[in-house]
């Protein structure tokens, strides 16, 4: 019997086609014996008789193509059963560059008997030279009569294909969700990390400036009485500023800060302080009152005032930079802690889950999308913990919150609610979006059903929600009308009821 490698000599000699040339019949058809020899390499056909192999070789249509030949196009009617005798066919969707399916030599693919396949789900093209036999759909009844075992062979192949495509789609959905999560976290981490980096980079220069100002102040050899008054002024000023480092960020009006800075520049000019524009910004960010500046001018005198004010301003700048570094690193630490809680890292699979905390941890992952969203939280403080797979429950909240934000285009009201009811815990996720069309409401939990644009969703989010909730012996329902859509999740409180 001829080996697979020897089939290269069976392909007609064709000139190398340009990219995207269609695969088609060979210039010189192969003999029936050569085709039968090729069909014997098709694994799903193992065990056929010589007559059955000959039937396929006789009734089938031969097709060949060189590298990058188009075998079929996405959306075209699927009407042939394909036996790939040599080469490889890759199927890709236009909206994704990832390979959806790969058919290699020895495969039985295309439209099979009993399949509901109507059109090709992607574009198939050859990788290297390809040689295949096509059996048209019109011959399926005759084929099943002539080869009775083909019914079972085709059903087994269909089941394998469904499992493989489902696995690939689920993997793609997970990668898509991971990509969105990574993008959200990257955005959240970038702000504090950038602030800490900028402050740390400027801190060295400012410390040097502060040291020089202190050196100049010390070099003036002030009398002990003046030095003591200056120290007392510093202590009083810090007390008056009321814990400057604890002021809420962003509590001051930027326009008011600008006006205050201009007033400080005028005060510094009036007191003959050089380069007032370098000192005023640091003072404007504090609550240092003008009467304190007047008092400082009286304490140190006009000759010392420029250096004293510059020293105070440099000291405040150093403190603000150090404070920014500390606050930024605390923010990063809080995000990392939320990520660990969200993923239940280093913890057992089954946890006693605080549903309110679980929802809040998930919300952290969406902070970058919540700027124009009013978030309302209504958590029952007396709700017991739920025995559950914590990381999987967070996948449920992630899918529901993401769908809610998508429905509202990141603008509107998001409401999260938890409460107890008998032996069940209830979680509700509300959004103020346009609602779900009643005609498709019964289909939203179907695998691969999506209303999102191509490339934005695979239709596995709500299927995953239902699967995980069912795994916990719970229930998921939805109520929707324009302006109010609510997904309700009910989970058993009793561990024995869940597992």
How would you explain this protein's 3D organization?
The protein has 499 residues and is of the alpha+beta class. 47% of the residues lie in helices and 19% in strands. The protein contains 12 helices and 13 strands. The strands form 3 sheets. Strands 1, 2, 3, 4, 5 and 6 form a 6-stranded antiparallel beta sheet that branches. A 5-stranded mixed beta sheet has the order 8-10-11-13-12. Helix 6 packs across helix 7, helix 8 crosses helix 9 and helix 9 packs across helix 10. The longest helix has 70 residues. The protein is elongated, with a radius of gyration of 36 Å.
Helices and strands in order:
Elements: H1 32-39, H2 50-59, E1 61-65, E2 70-72, E3 80-92, E4 99-104, E5 107-110, E6 123-136, H3 140-146, H4 150-219, H5 224-240, H6 254-270, H7 276-284, H8 290-343, E7 350-353, H9 355-364, E8 373-379, E9 386-389, H10 390-408, E10 412-421, E11 424-431, H11 461-471, E12 475-481, E13 484-492, H12 495-498
Parallel strand pairs: 8-10
Antiparallel strand pairs: 1-6, 2-6, 3-4, 3-5, 3-6, 7-9, 10-11, 11-13, 12-13
Helix pairs in contact: 1-2, 4-8, 5-8, 6-7, 7-8, 8-9, 9-10, 10-11
